[in-house]
Design brief:
This protein is an alpha+beta fold and 503 residues long. The chain has 3 domains: 264 residues, LuxQ periplasmic domain, N-terminal subdomain (Beta-Lactamase, 2-Layer Sandwich), CATH 3.30.450.220; 34 residues; 150 residues, Alpha-Beta Plaits (2-Layer Sandwich), CATH 3.30.70.270. 51% of the residues lie in helices and 19% in strands. It contains 14 helices and 16 strands. Strands 1, 2, 3, 4, 5 and 6 form a 6-stranded antiparallel sheet that branches. Strands 8-7-11-10-9 form a 5-stranded antiparallel sheet. A 5-stranded mixed sheet has the order 13-14-12-15-16, sandwiched between helices. Helix 11 crosses helix 12. It starts with a helix and ends with a helix.
Length: 503
């Protein structure tokens, strides 16, 4: 749940930061556009005023160079000033005239001479390698004829008016920076001066801004980087200003916001979770106890009455009491049914099922013990002669004798029909032999329900001496039992004697 909350918070934070960044960048571009409009209007007016003064100088046949020098010293806009007559000859310049020959010879200045109107050139590279923008204003002589133009140059690789507007570097801590393009998409200003003069008209935002559109958008630049850009055109010179922030930085800010939220909320969440778990365990404790008790009862194991725990709700207390009463009754019933399921109804001895449970338990404990297989001799004749009712009484008679003559801890059970099994814990086969012989000799002298004594045949085997599993051990005892039958009945045979005879 908290993870989902943090994911949603991240998405909301990123969306909010995107919207804020878009609006800030657009507003920044608009403000810079207003400033640039004002500056270039002033630059145009400055050129216009000085062009008029030069017209007056021409009328009085005064030299133009002094005025050009004064203009250069007093202006903060241009890197150089030049006067070019309509033939393309440099008449006056703020530096050596020869330095301007390559500028005048460049293609853009030919266009300015032919237009005979105020112009701003596209950036061009001079013969010396400088990237230059030329801003001109026409000069008219006293007769109203076109004389040439007054030009001011902006050298993009040097300190210029754009640096004054935008600063030396406009990349802030968030990675936001500003760049300027002309009407053809050439970069005029950029924090990375290596990109000056580069044509980026393929950029979707640049296409919009040079078409006179204003706004903001997410854009992938010509380098393949994604930015959140705000943009605006500059009416005075036809240029465009773009202010953009790396989208990756905005996503990183959103991550930092969420990490701070996690740092602040996670301890509180963990504390509340711990309190909730503690309260839940307190409230669930009675039900857990009752469930464990019920599981014990259904498994057939004896279960003590569950202790009473502090209960925080009246309903839980009532349910606890009701369920506890029901469980007590259920346990009694389960114990009764379990006892019936593991008890032979005729003799009252444990049955074969109870024998298997005990054998499994003792073998898991690796407890040594002996097993005695007992079978009534000629029992079929008893049933045939005296009837099944007397036969049943004979079985009960034998069970009582076995119970009376066995030790505490010995286990007597009816295995099936007239066969019985006795388990003697921690008893070697010779002691087991003596014990079963006492029972056998007792039966020889005791009158049975038939009116005369009965005899039994017995086989003795021991764990772990004679077998490793319950099935194998019972097989060994049976083999000894049937050996006793073959040897004439009314006797006990040890399994180890069979092994010795076989050897």
């Amino acid at each position: 749940m908290m993870l989902l909350h943090w994911v949603v918070s991240y998405c909301e934070a990123k969306k909010s930061l995107y919207n804020t960044t878009f609006q800030l960048n657009e507003q920044s571009a608009i403000k810079l556009g207003v400033t640039m409009n004002t500056v270039f209007r002033s630059m145009k007016n400055t050129l216009m005023g000085n062009a008029k003064h030069l017209s007056e100088q021409l009328a009085s046949s005064s030299p133009l160079q002094p005025h050009v020098n004064h203009f250069m010293e007093s202006n903060d806009y241009f890197n150089a000033i030049v006067v070019v007559e309509r033939s393309g000859r440099v008449v006056a310049a703020s530096a050596e005239k020869d330095d301007f020959h390559d500028i005048v010879a460049a293609g853009p200045t030919r266009q300015e001479l032919s237009d005979r109107s105020p112009t701003i050139s596209e950036p061009f590279r001079s013969a010396s390698g400088d990237i230059i923008v030329l801003m001109t204003y026409p000069i008219v002589d006293a007769q109203g004829e076109y004389y040439g133009y007054l030009g001011g140059t902006i050298h993009l690789h040097e300190n210029n008016v754009l640096n004054e507007i935008f600063g030396e570097s406009t990349t802030n801590e968030s990675g936001t920076y500003t760049y300027v393009v002309d009407g053809s998409g050439h970069i005029l200003y950029h924090p990375d001066r290596n990109r000056l003069g580069e044509n980026v008209s393929a950029n979707a935002v640049v296409q919009r801004v040079i078409n006179g559109q204003r706004g903001y958008d997410e854009v992938t630049n010509t380098k393949g980087d994604v930015f959140l850009a705000g943009y605006t055109p500059v009416e005075e010179n036809g240029w465009g200003i773009v202010v953009q922030t790396p989208a990756e930085e905005i996503r990183a800010q959103a991550v930092r916001i969420i990490l701070k939220e996690i740092v602040y909320t996670l301890p509180i969440f963990l504390l509340l979770l711990a309190i909730t778990i503690l309260l839940a365990r307190k409230l669930a404790a009675p039900f857990t106890l009752l469930a464990n008790t019920a599981e014990g009862i259904t498994s057939g194991k004896p279960v003590d009455s569950p202790p009473h725990h502090a209960i925080f709700s009246y309903e839980a207390h009532q349910l606890y009491q009701t369920v506890l009463l029901a469980m007590e009754r259920l346990q009694k019933r389960a114990e009764h049914l379990l006892n019936e399921a593991q008890t032979d109804a005729l003799t009252g001895l444990p049955n074969r099922r109870a024998l298997n449970v005990l054998l499994s338990a003792w073998m898991q404990e690796r407890k040594p013990f002996s097993v005695v297989a007992v079978d009534i001799d000629f029992f079929k004749q008893v049933n045939d002669t005296y009837g099944h009712q007397v036969g049943d009484q004979v079985l009960q008679f034998l069970a009582n004798v076995m119970r009376a003559n066995s030790r505490k801890g010995d286990f007597c059970c009816r295995y099936g029909g007239e066969e019985f099994i006795i388990l003697l814990p921690n008893t070697p086969s010779d002691e087991a032999y003596q014990m079963i012989e006492r029972i056998r000799t007792t039966l020889e002298l005791k009158t049975s329900p038939t009116g005369k004594p009965i005899t039994i045949s017995c086989g003795v085997a021991s764990y772990p001496d004679h077998a490793a599993t319950a099935h194998e051990l019972l097989e060994c005892a049976d083999q000894a039992l049937y050996a006793a039958k073959r040897q004439g009945r009314n006797r006990t045979v040890l399994y180890e004697q069979l092994k010795a005879d076989g050897a």
